Amino acid sequence: APRWRSRTLHLGRALVAKARTLANITVLENAFTTDLLIAEGGAIAGIEVRIRGETRQMFSRAVLLASGGAGQVFSDTTNPLVATGDGVAMAYRAGAEISDLEFFQFHPTALSVEGAPRFLLSEALRREGALLLTSAQARFMPRSHALAELAPRDVAARALTQQTPQAPTAGRAHARLLALPPPAAPPVPPPSPPLA
Q1: How do residues 3-18 score in pLDDT, each as one tens digit?
Q2: Helix (H, G, I), strand (E, B) or coil at 158
Q3: CA dist 15 → 25, 26, 42, 96, 101 (Å)
Q4: Which of 58, 59, 65, 104 shows the smallest number of beta carbons within 10 Å?
Q5: Which residues contact 129 (CB under 8 A, 6 or more apart)?
Q6: Are 140 and 74 in contact (CB under 8 A)?
Q7: For residues 17 and 188, what is the distance between their CA atoms, to the nearest angstrom?
Q8: Residues whose CB falls within 8 Å of the CB of residue 81, separated by 6 or more in sequence, listed in order
Q9: Percentage of residues of the chain with pLDDT beyond 90
Q10: Does residue 72 contact residue 118 with C-beta atoms inside 8 Å?
């Protein structure tokens, strides 16, 4: 079976780095967009932003909302504290039709330590052999989906919820990562034939 490598792309960092190189873009640090500005006729005309305690209006021909997730609207999340769904709320207040909210990206597995924020345990761990176990150390994902631990996130989340009673003193589901052999070295290609 092929071994998968986890590749994480930090798109936000890459976009900001590129934006800093463009003369027609100004990057504002520590700014918080609070609302969309609406022109006569209902068109979006810009944003209202708070920078260091001061509220400003910034006008633009176009506004792209890329405001991150909404994990903080849920009781358990691995999202940062700033993922509060503000972009969706602004769009809704401006008259946008909101749909398909059930497709917010989420991660069903997280490290849960009392008094600490949840820490993401990526599906890359499961691709590398981590097993999801009940508090009694029994696997349960094979009963939930043919792909077992590699089931889609929504399936894994439902199965985990069924295994994790809501009572604060109840047991929790666990993940165990088994020791895996190191990956084999890739084969060395044969030398190229000499040019004639």
Answers
A1: 433 334 456 788 889 9
A2: helix
A3: 11, 13, 29, 26, 25
A4: 59
A5: 177, 178, 180
A6: no
A7: 37
A8: 72
A9: 28
A10: no
Active site residue 153: yes
CA distance 15 to 125: 28
Q: Which residue has the tokens 């769904």?
A: 85
Tell me the C-alpha distance between 90 and 35, whole Å. 5
pTM beyond 0.70? no
DSSP code for 139: B
Task: Report the distance separating Cα 102 and Cα 96, nearest Å.
Answer: 17
Q: What pLDDT, on a 0 to 100 scale, did the predictor assign at position 161? A: 82
Residue 182 CA: distances (Å) to CA of 5, 146, 179, 189? 12, 27, 9, 21
Beta bridge partners of 126: none
Q: Where are the alpha helices (DSSP H) in 94-176?
A: 123-127, 141-144, 153-163
Helix, strand, coil share of the chain (percent; to 5)? 25, 15, 60
Catalytic residue among 3, 50, 56, 153: 153
CB atoms within 10 A of CB 45: 17
- What distance separates the 2 farthest-apart alpha carbons in the chain? 76
Q: Is the pLDDT of residue 194 over 80?
A: no
In what helix (H) or strand (E) does residue 55 lie, and over which residues does it extend?
strand 54-59
